[in-house]
């Protein structure tokens, strides 16, 4: 059964029953205070559970000779009925040890009587009772479907009570309070349903009574009632009612109606004349009534009041969630056929649409034709030049409901023209399958011939505005469309600018070659290999990002000198002692060297080797590192050779494999990995990490190869390991 069925069932049940459920819950909250109001009277004897009938009945018979009935209510107040010494009708609460009158029953509150009638039958008699019973049953189904949705959301029942990712007030407390009040609400629903079925005779409860053989009744030996064995063994707390003999004739007897049986007792000898156990249905009916009303426990009554109040909150928050999802749905200005920018959204609860809509609105404001829709609405987009996918992950690495057909649609509708794509995943590191579905989408698109990666997949943890803002900045630079994160939508963290001193720089003979430049930040600046250095060569909005290798506490960059390149030309003009003033360090935590994993396989091409040089330099003992790198020829590799040879000699690097694409065997880095695919698969099995840094073209080829290795050797998809941070990428 799919997630969507449970979600739609949950919604349909809630919508269809919310009026009656609101009324039942509101009256339920009020009625929870009835047992509390009754318990304020001090009519319960101390150590009530220890008092036996042998202690109580002799006292009462002596003090009230005309007593006809004794009853014990849900509050354990002992009430007697009969006539007093003056022949007046007697009805009073008494102390069962002394017989002292503690008070008299008061007339039940007209308000509580009115609310009770409304709660039970809506003032519609049996018809109303039917609808209230049906509402209780629907509440039970709502609780079951809600429980299944939480299990899906939390990635399994074992994580049922683990951390909830807070998206908004209504969503967060709908889940949190739902978990906390699940048991009392289920009890309310189950007992309410059972009591209704019992009321309408659908659960049969046969009437029972003791059969007395009057011919066998004995009149001797006569005993005092305090010596009756049955009275010695039965405690007052087990009693519902006791009917006293009407006269002193041997044919009249005591009738004890206990919690589980009815017993008749010879008033002269104490013999048991008859005993019959109540049917299980009768016992469960009483038990259900106790649980449903809270009449036996003040604490349980308070729990029921809170649970009923929570139901009212669930009705409110459920509608807020539903309307928020509907509000976030796409309202397109252009059709899919005429749009250049296509935004595809995968979202289970609708929140991802808010992020997508912020991008859509800015594209429209920039005069672009854009179209936003769900991933399940993917089809031919004849004029598309860019596809942006924004998707959350649901369940245990599953697709959201509105994206579960995307994979089949992607194969069914190949685009006729080249289309740039970028994928943004939303998730939480609290879950082991972080953004797994987004990784799957990125891998699927990478295999399509028409799909051109515009930038590597980005992820956003717990709807981080900073991480979303970083993606916005990177995407807008590649697309050359000015997009921002509006202060009114998401606050953007402002990093302070760094002042960097150039320590040294290697020389090149001309454009197209790589050079290394080392910079020293001010003391106290924190950074590590894998972070990014953003520079502003023209001191304007134009930003250039470079991967950092931390070597000897300094920032080392590997830069390819482009002809008239804004960033590379600026850096190459710097000399030892020069100061780079307009720069900032951008944290890139997802691409830091793993703390515990071993082995670590590093894969790069060209200047993508930069962060790995720093990681190898700072490698902690006990971690095996292997580097697979690709270059055009030995000349382009020469700038890195000395450092890597030294790392091999010092055992910081366990293995080095280099592919040259324009000389010798003319290989690419993927060819080296294909040769060592068993080694790669074994590394993943051992919990190792594969790190990629370099061009998007290299990433596409390597990802395709890794997917094949995972499927053939490990019987899992690559996204499984990506979601567990065993395959991480930082490509451009």
What does this 3D model show about the protein?
The chain has about 725 residues and is of the alpha/beta class. It has five domains: about 5-40 and about 120-205 and about 285-325; about 50-95 and about 230-280, no CATH class; about 330-480, 3-Layer(aba) Sandwich (Rossmann fold); about 495-590, Translation factors (Elongation Factor Tu (Ef-tu), domain 3, Beta Barrel); about 595-730, 3-Layer(aba) Sandwich (Rossmann fold). About 40% of the residues lie in helices and about 20% in strands. It has 21 helices and 26 strands. Strands 4-3-2-1-5-6-7-8 form an eight-stranded antiparallel sheet, with no helix packed on it. Strands 18-17-21-15-16-20-19 form a seven-stranded antiparallel sheet. Strands 9, 10, 11, 12, 13 and 14 form a six-stranded parallel sheet that branches. A hairpin with an 8-residue loop joins strand 15 (about 500-505) and strand 16. Helix 7 crosses helix 10. About 35% of the residues are buried.
């Amino acid at each position: 059964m799919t997630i969507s069925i449970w979600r739609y069932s949950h919604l349909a049940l809630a919508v269809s029953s919310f009026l009656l459920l609101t009324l039942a819950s509101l009256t339920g909250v009020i009625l929870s205070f009835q047992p509390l109001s009754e318990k304020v009277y001090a009519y319960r004897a101390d150590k009530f559970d220890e008092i036996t009938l042998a202690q109580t009945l002799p006292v009462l018979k002596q003090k009230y000779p005309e007593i006809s009935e004794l009853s014990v209510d849900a509050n354990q107040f002992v009430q007697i009925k009969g006539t007093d010494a003056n022949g007046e009708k007697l009805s009073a609460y008494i102390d069962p040890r002394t017989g002292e009158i503690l008070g008299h029953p008061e007339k039940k509150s007209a308000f509580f009587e009115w609310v009770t009638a409304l709660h039970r039958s809506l003032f519609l008699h049996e018809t109303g009772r039917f609808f209230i019973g049906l509402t209780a049953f629907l509440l039970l189904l709502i609780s079951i479907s809600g429980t299944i949705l939480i299990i899906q959301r939390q990635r399994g029942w074992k994580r049922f009570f683990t951390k909830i990712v807070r998206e908004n007030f209504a969503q967060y407390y709908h889940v949190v309070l739902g978990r906390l009040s699940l048991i009392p609400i289920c009890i309310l629903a189950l007992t309410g349903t059972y009591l209704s079925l019992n009321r309408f005779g659908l659960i049969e409860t046969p009437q029972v009574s003791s059969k007395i053989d009057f011919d066998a009744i004995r009149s001797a030996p006569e005993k005092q009632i305090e010596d009756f064995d049955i009275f010695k063994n039965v405690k007052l707390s087990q009693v519902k009612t006791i009917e006293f003999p009407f006269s002193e004739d041997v044919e009249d007897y005591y009738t004890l109606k206990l919690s589980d049986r009815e017993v008749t007792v010879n008033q002269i000898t104490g013999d048991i004349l008859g005993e019959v156990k109540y049917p299980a249905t009768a016992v469960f009916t009483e038990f259900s009534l106790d649980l449903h009303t809270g009449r036996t426990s003040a604490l349980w009554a308070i729990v029921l009041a809170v649970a009923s109040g929570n139901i009212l909150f669930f009705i409110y928050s459920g509608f807020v969630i539903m309307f928020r999802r509907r509000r976030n749905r796409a309202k397109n200005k252009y059709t899919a056929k005429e749009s250049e920018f296509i935004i595809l959204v995968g979202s289970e609860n609708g929140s991802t649409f808010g992020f997508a809509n912020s991008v859509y609105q800015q594209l429209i404001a920039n005069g672009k034709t854009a179209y936003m829709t769900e991933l399940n609405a993917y089809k031919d987009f004849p004029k598309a030049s860019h596809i942006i996918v924004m998707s959350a992950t649901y369940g245990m690495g599953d697709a959201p409901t509105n994206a579960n057909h995307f994979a089949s649609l992607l194969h069914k509708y190949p685009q006729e023209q080249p289309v740039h794509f970028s994928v943004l995943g939303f998730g939480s590191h609290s879950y082991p399958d972080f953004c797994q579905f987004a990784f799957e989408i990125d891998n699927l698109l990478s295999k399509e011939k028409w799909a051109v990666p515009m930038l590597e997949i980005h992820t956003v943890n717990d709807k981080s505005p900073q991480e979303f803002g970083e993606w916005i900045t990177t995407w807008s630079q590649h697309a050359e469309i000015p997009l921002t994160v509006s202060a009114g939508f998401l606050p953007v963290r402002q990093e302070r600018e760094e002042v960097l001193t150039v320590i040294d720089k290697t020389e090149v003979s001309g454009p197209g070659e790589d050079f290394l430049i080392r910079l020293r930040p001010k003391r106290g600046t924190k950074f590590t290999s894998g972070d990014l250095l953003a520079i502003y060569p023209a001191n304007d909005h134009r930003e250039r990002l470079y991967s950092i290798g931390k070597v000897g506490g300094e920032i080392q960059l590997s830069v390819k000198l482009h002809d008239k390149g804004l960033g590379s030309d600026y850096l190459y003009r710097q000399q030892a002692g020069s100061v780079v003033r307009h720069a900032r360090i951008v944290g890139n935590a997802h691409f830091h060297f793993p703390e515990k994993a071993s082995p670590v396989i590093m894969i790069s091409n060209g200047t993508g080797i930069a962060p790995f040089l720093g990681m190898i330099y700072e490698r902690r003992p006990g971690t095996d590192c292997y580097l697979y790198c690709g270059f055009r020829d030995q000349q382009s590799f020469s700038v890195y050779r000395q450092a890597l040879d030294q790392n091999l000699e010092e055992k910081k690097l366990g293995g080095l494999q280099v592919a040259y694409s324009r000389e010798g065997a003319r290989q690419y880095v993927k060819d080296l990995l294909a040769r060592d695919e068993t080694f790669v698969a074994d590394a993943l099995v051992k919990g190792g990490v594969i790190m990629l840094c370099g061009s998007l073209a290299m990433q596409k080829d390597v990802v395709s190869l890794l997917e094949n290795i995972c499927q053939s050797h490990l019987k899992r998809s690559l996204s499984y390991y990506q979601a567990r941070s065993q395959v991480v990428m930082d490509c451009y």
